[in-house]
């Protein structure tokens, strides 16, 4: 499993609805509300045999109320 972090910018007033929809999909291990340019941050474990972009698009990015996302890939450094 490869961990990635995904930040979500939501339509104003829709952050709680988006967060609920993300949890309903049961694909994130952690979900946080954040300050700054994005409203939510999720930690997602991508199966090794899956394409990251396709997996995220199919699992999360079609949720209504998401305006923009930022995906940060992680790499084993140590």
Question: Features of this protein?
Answer:
78 residues; Alpha-Beta Plaits; 2 helices; 4 strands; Transcriptional regulator, AsnC family; Tscrpt_reg_AsnC/Lrp_C
Contiguous uncertain segments of 5+ residues: none
Order of helices and strands: EHEEHE
Strand adjacency order, main sheet: 2-3-1-4
Largest sheet at a glance? 4 strands, antiparallel
CATH architecture: 2-Layer Sandwich
Percent helix, as a range, is 10-25%
Number of helices: 2
Determine the structural class based on helices, strands and strand pairing.
alpha+beta
CATH class: Alpha Beta
How many β-strands, per DSSP?
A: 4
Kindly, what is the distance between the CA atoms of the first and last residues, rounded to a whole number of angstroms?
Answer: 17 Å
Pfam families: AsnC_trans_reg
InterPro entries: Dimeric_a/b-barrel, Tscrpt_reg_AsnC/Lrp_C
Protein name: Transcriptional regulator, AsnC family
Describe this structure in words.
By secondary structure, this protein is of the alpha+beta class. The protein has one domain (2-73): Lrp/AsnC effector binding domain/regulation of amino acid metabolism (RAM) domain (Alpha-Beta Plaits), CATH 3.30.70.920. Helix content is 24%, strand content 38%. The protein contains two helices and four strands, in the order E-H-E-E-H-E. A four-stranded antiparallel beta sheet has the order 2-3-1-4. It starts with a strand and ends in a 5-residue tail after the last strand. Residues 6-76 form the Transcription regulator AsnC/Lrp ligand binding domain. InterPro entries: Dimeric_a/b-barrel (IPR011008), Tscrpt_reg_AsnC/Lrp_C (IPR019887).
